[in-house]
């Protein structure tokens, strides 16, 4: 979750770099771009292998707002569908295993029951 206390923020198209050396803490901001220090130090992962199980977590941080999610579709930047996940009966938070994805930029489209849609970028390095 990015910024502004325990409720996150409503920014879209966020392009934020988390860096232990950054001077501004992300938890106090609601940034759309820039370098910020994470809530927990990334240096905790120093020496850890990049191999293993990595996951993308989708979580409803506004449980009082009733939006029924229908599906999530993960695309390559070229538009090829990599995975389609039925969210109709999914419990939040939902973790999706992305450890087998190759390095690159992906698009995650989250579609609600009313067909409204949110698209976010997923960068795997």
Would you kindly provide a written description of the structure presented here, covering whatever features stand out?
- The protein is globular.
- The two termini are 19 Å apart.
- The model is unreliable at 1-7 (pLDDT under 50).
- The strands form three sheets. Strands 5-4-7-8 form a four-stranded antiparallel sheet, with no helix packed on it. Strands 1-2 form a two-stranded parallel sheet. The protein has a two-stranded antiparallel ribbon with strand order 3-6.
- The chain is built from no helices and eight strands.
- It folds into two domains: 5-45, no CATH class; 55-124, Sandwich (Immunoglobulin-like).
- The chain has strands at residues 15-18, 33-36, 55-58, 69-76, 81-86, 94-97, 104-112, 117-124.
- A hairpin with a 4-residue loop joins strand 4 and strand 5.
- The protein has 125 residues and is mainly β.
- Helices cover 0% and strands 38% of the residues.
Q: What percentage of amino acids are in beta strands?
A: 35-45%
Based on Cα principal axes, name the global outline.
Answer: globular
Give start-end ranges of low-pLDDT stretches.
1-7
Order of helices and strands: EEEEEEEE
| Count of all domains | 2
Helix fraction, binned, reads under 10%
Enter the CATH topology name of the largest domain: Immunoglobulin-like
């Amino acid at each position: 979750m990015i910024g502004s206390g325990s409720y996150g923020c409503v920014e879209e198209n966020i392009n934020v770099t988390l860096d232990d050396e950054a001077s501004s803490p992300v938890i106090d901001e609601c940034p759309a771009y820039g370098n910020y220090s994470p809530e927990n130090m990334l240096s905790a992962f120093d020496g850890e292998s990049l191999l293993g199980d990595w996951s993308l977590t989708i979580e409803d941080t506004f449980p009082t707002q009733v939006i029924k999610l229908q599906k999530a579709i993960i695309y390559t930047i070229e538009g090829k569908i990599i995975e389609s996940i039925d969210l109709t009966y999914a419990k939040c938070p939902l973790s999706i295993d992305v450890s087998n994805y190759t390095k690159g930029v992906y698009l995650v489209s989250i579609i609600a029951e009313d067909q409204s849609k949110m698209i976010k970028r997923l960068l795997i390095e």
